[in-house]
Design brief:
Layout lengths: L6 H20 L16 E5 L17 E5 H7 L7
Antiparallel strand pairs: 1-2
């Protein structure tokens, strides 16, 4: 079963990709919590108020996201890191 990408979802993905690139430039390709450059898992875009935790479905602004390494992103969501 393949997932159909709706025009809304496609726009959201494109918007998030653009935000990620802009935020990476602002953070100088470093995690905004621990300031490392990340590891093989890379740096990811994290919403400061995730949609599943009361955030909205609007297109987020640059001030509502941050760049985090895997370890900090996992810690933020209370997820045990897998080595």
């Amino acid at each position: 079963m393949t997932r159909r990408i709706t025009p809304h979802l496609k726009a959201q993905i494109e918007h998030d990709n653009a935000l990620r690139q802009e935020r990476l430039e602002i953070a100088d390709n470093h995690c905004e919590m621990c300031h490392t450059t990340g590891d093989w898992r890379g740096l990811s875009l994290s919403h400061t108020k995730p949609k599943g935790m009361g955030g909205t479905r609007h297109l987020y602004s640059i001030d509502e996201v941050q760049i985090l390494c895997y370890k900090c992103h996992a810690a933020l969501h209370h997820i045990k890191e897998i080595a």
